[in-house]
From TrEMBL:
CDD domains: SpoU-like_rRNA-MTase (cd18095). This is RNA methyltransferase. SUPFAM superfamilies: alpha/beta knot, L30e-like. Keywords: Methyltransferase, Transferase.
Amino acid sequence: MQITRITDLSSAGLADYSRLTDVALRRVLEPAGGLYIAESPKVIARALNAGHRPRSLLIQEQWMPDAARLLVDWPDVPVYVGEPGVLEQLTGYNLHRGALAAMHRPALEPVEALLTSARRIVILEDIVDHTNVGAIFRSVAGLGADAVLITPRCADPLYRRSVRVSMGTVLQVPWTRLPEWSVATPLLHAAGFHLAALALADNAVSLDVFAEAAPERLAIILGAEGDGLSQHALAAADTVVTIPMLHGVDSLNVASASAVALYALRIRS
């Protein structure tokens, strides 16, 4: 490994961890795709297994053996090593998971490529909370959907908090960005997908009823907390579906709702 002991926090090699916000990381090195930060050895391993290319690692001393295993195929990647207090001064928070990696972002796949063999997909419309985005990806991975499509204004799945909350599943679930609904709707229908919007509406079908005869190819559309789905999304939907609730509660957190819907609508082979 190319190991550097941190003695100077102004070193150019540390800029990815100290002087760039997550938003800025998306823009650096464009058009090559920018960077994202993977946090913890488990998440870094998932990123590498997904074929993502590391730019550098930042670790505490005790994580050296893990770094050696992670970078067995990347011997020229710089590894910066520092004491916990030094790393906290650099990053601005306690690195209790012991390791960060600056990763090069892969190019996004065309929507059509993700739809080809998929049977269950999830569409996230303008969900701006990174924690919810990460939690939904974890549900998608655990409950068997094939891909996630996100609208142009949806939060970035590779934002550090999203990656962390997802336990790294944003790095293994195929995802890409959708165009606006005027273009996305005919594209999804042409691929044979039935669009089911999860929302409260007078004409909504109960989830358990809908699940009894769920379409073979299904896109589940989820909206932001508070505002819910836009009128464009509801107009695009073939069916509006609602989760039956009790005791005067009208809805669940969107991440919780995604897990309920994905379980009810899972492929039963």
